[in-house]
Every structure is written in C-alpha cells, then in structure tokens.
Amino acid sequence: MSREKLVIRDNSTLRAQYNSLLKGDIVVGRLRLRESEEPLLLDLHERGVHLIPPGLSQLVSRSKTFQTALFPKFMLPQTRAIHALHDLIEAISDYQKSAITAVITKLDRRNAGMGVHLWQSIEEVYTHASLGNIPFPFVLQPFEPECRDIRVVFLDDYIEAYWRHNPYSFRNNLHHGGQSKPCELSEEQIKLCRQVMERGCFPYGHLDILVTKDGKSYLGEINLRGGIQGAKISPEEYQEKVEAIHQMLLQKVD
After folding, report:
1. Quick one: pLDDT band at residue 173, thresholds 50, 70, 90?
2. Does domain 148-252 have CATH number 3.40.250.10?
C-alpha cells in the first residue's frame, strides 16, 4: 500500500524515521552528522530520498580536502589535498620546481581560521607531518603575500560581498580581529561564484575569494553556512532567505 511522501524538516525526526524512508521522500535542511556518519548522505541519495540542500553540497561544506577534488581549476594553482606523507613528498618536488617557498596548510575540518598555518617552506611541513604534529588530511597551497580576501554571501538573487583584512595577521577572518568593508564584485568574480556553486550543487552559500596582488581571483573555500559578521544582512533576514530557497526547491521536487 502506497503512502504520501514524507517531508522531514528536523534531524530528530530523520533519525527516528531513517530506515523507513522511501523513494520520493524529502529531507529539508542540513543533516547534523558525525564524520563517520557521512555515508548516510550517499545511502539516502541511492534510495531516492531528495535532500535539500543536495547531499553533495553538504559533503563539500564539511571537508576542505574534498573541495580540492571538485574545484581545482577555480583554486590557487598547486592547491592540493595531502592525505599521507607520500602525497607530501610529491608536493615537495612540484613546489620546488615552481620555486614556491612559503606555504599555507589548512586542517580539514576546522573553521574560522582555527586550522590555518603559515610555514616558511614545505620542508617544514614535511618535518612536522612526519613527526605526527600535523593530522592528515590537510590542504596545502602556496602562500600569497599581499593578497586580499573577499567573503561572498550568495542567496539566490541576493549577493553581498565584503573585504576582510587584518593588517597584523595573514588570517583575515573577523574572528581573529580582521576588519571588513563592503565591496562590489566584478562580473568575473560573480561568474566564478556561480561556476563553483553549480559544480558543488550549492543552492546558496558562503564563498571566500582570494584576490592576488596581480588581480587574479581564486576560490578559497565554500560552505553552505558561515558567519555573517561584517555583512549588512541581519540573521533574521538571512534565515528567511534560506527558508525561501528551501521552499522553492521543495516545490520543484516531483
């Protein structure tokens, strides 16, 4: 006997009904998952359960190293995921061929700049990683001095961008004392945001754009949600727009 499709909007109900969900059922809102539970997103997808926002965007938001697999052409050249010492040894050769000295590492699941570290050489990274001082996996990329950082809040037709800058630290996050100022995105930067969001199935998102001193723009990272300190939009307006996007996507589900 068939039943009407279920629309689940909270994680508690999802947990209770998980194994009884059928093809066509819908889960609205990000799933709260432990790292070891992330395969549940794949299971739901394979069973034909619709996820709003899509499961891919939820996975991408959770892992910086996964982002390097999806968005390499949008990121700073030579940005890569390091899963083991073997990857790091390969990176040493490539970075030295390109005369890259100072580098940045980003721990995989840390936000607000808490897992970002600056090293004077990739050999320093190798030394600390081989001694167990850096947990795998992590993101490795060249350090770009004098670069600028733009946070973009992308909510359907609402787009807001602002510079984040800290004159006393390479970490521009407002959480670490950075300052913000509204800015206008170029058409090229808006196109970059749209391409990244399309590739990762993001119906909305927070994007960090790195602008080098020669004016080139690259993706730093992307998340479905993030802090809006420095943005004009209020938390209430923000939530209203997210819920409106969810409702729009819900109406499109057959």
Report:
1. low
2. no
